[in-house]
Design goal:
The complex is a heterodimer of chains A (about 260) and B (about 70). Chain A is mainly alpha-helical. Chain A contains 12 helices and 2 strands. The chains are: A mainly alpha (about 260), B mainly alpha (about 70).
């Protein structure tokens, strides 16, 4: 809310200068912008804008929020996001652009959004993700109901596990295949908040395979799916040149040691 | 501004009031930093309130999750 209003105040003030032209030493609005960029106020505004945008992201429906997180936190490409959600790259891209447009409207109102919106969006998405996983850890709500999957769904889940960003695969394989504790996972993969990340990816995959929001896939189903996924992963490692599915084209992919 | 405020719904009025109470001084400071004059800053902030009220409906409707 604050950033929305601050943007209006800021733009109205700049408009007032433009109209009055009383300050001849201000050559362009860009100069004014440069001057303000280092100021305390601007720093405050940027922080409040990020916070404000993070709050807006939090209000988005789950599917939109997850897409923003995948794009700007996990830095997945639209092809990878589409593969994970079971839609085409084009559809994922259009959906992403629609969400970004929606965020721009809510965040900026009638005022054109600033040029650094993508950067602010990225920071806001990261902040929102951090808050979400911290909230997961301290959640006082009752645990979601665990559901077992049938064979077909487990097969589908195993395919989706391989489409996750490396961090997601790490935490799932660590927990369900290597039987690491969260502390061991953090130590081994140099990660932070492994337990919270595990909960996040469990929720994400539950959403992806079509489980209700109040439910989550059971540990036993995850164990079965992760074992299948790890088998396929190693299989791909051994025969890497024969077939290259989407998940193996990831620029951020990190190879497990066989 | 007074008349425009009168035609807002209760929810919208509360929203604008909340902004005024919480952020008015901050808005003055930001505007003063840009326009370098107390009078112009007050004008700019008043105009900003008009814009906020003009768009409050759109803004609040966007905030409602699906």
């Amino acid at each position: 809310m604050t950033a929305f209003c601050v943007t209006i105040v800021k733009n109205t003030s700049i408009d007032m200068i433009r109209q009055s032209k009383r300050f001849a030493y201000v050559d362009t609005v860009d100069n004014l912008k440069d001057e303000l960029e280092v100021s305390f106020e601007d720093d405050y505004i940027n922080k409040s804008e990020i916070l404000r945008l993070s709050e807006i992201i939090d209000m988005l429906p789950q599917e939109d929020r997850l897409l923003i997180q995948m794009k700007y936190v996990q830095e997945m490409r639209y092809a990878e996001i589409g593969a994970l959600l079971g839609i085409s790259e084009e559809t994922a891209k259009k959906r992403g652009q629609r969400i970004i447009q929606k965020l721009k409207i809510i965040w900026g109102g009638v005022i054109p959004v600033s040029e650094n919106f993508p950067e602010i969006l990225k920071l806001a998405a990261k902040l929102n993700f951090e808050q979400e996983i911290s909230k997961t850890a301290s959640d006082t709500d009752p645990s979601p109901i665990e559901v077992d999957l049938d064979c077909m769904q487990i097969q589908k889940l195993s395919e989706k596990v391989l489409l996750l960003p490396p961090q997601g695969m790490f935490v799932l394989f660590s927990k369900y295949c290597f039987l690491f504790t969260p502390a061991e996972t953090e130590l081994f993969y140099h990660l932070q908040k492994a337990k919270e990340l595990l909960t996040h990816y469990r929720k994400l995959l539950s959403f992806v395979v079509g489980i209700k929001e109040s439910q989550i896939i059971s540990d036993s189903s995850f164990r079965d799916a992760c074992k299948i996924a790890l088998y396929h992963y190693l299989d791909q490692e051994l025969y890497a040149n024969q077939h290259q599915p989407v998940f193996l084209m990831s620029k951020t992919r990190t190879v497990f040691r066989k | 501004m007074f008349f425009l405020f009168g035609i807002l719904t209760e929810e919208q009025q509360r929203f604008v009031e909340q902004i005024f109470r919480k952020h008015h001084i901050q808005f003055q400071r930001i505007s003063l930093k840009i326009v370098k004059s107390q009078a112009s800053a007050e004008d700019a902030v008043s105009t900003a309130y008009l814009k906020i009220m003009d768009n409050v409906e759109k803004y609040l409707s966007c905030l409602v999750p699906k």
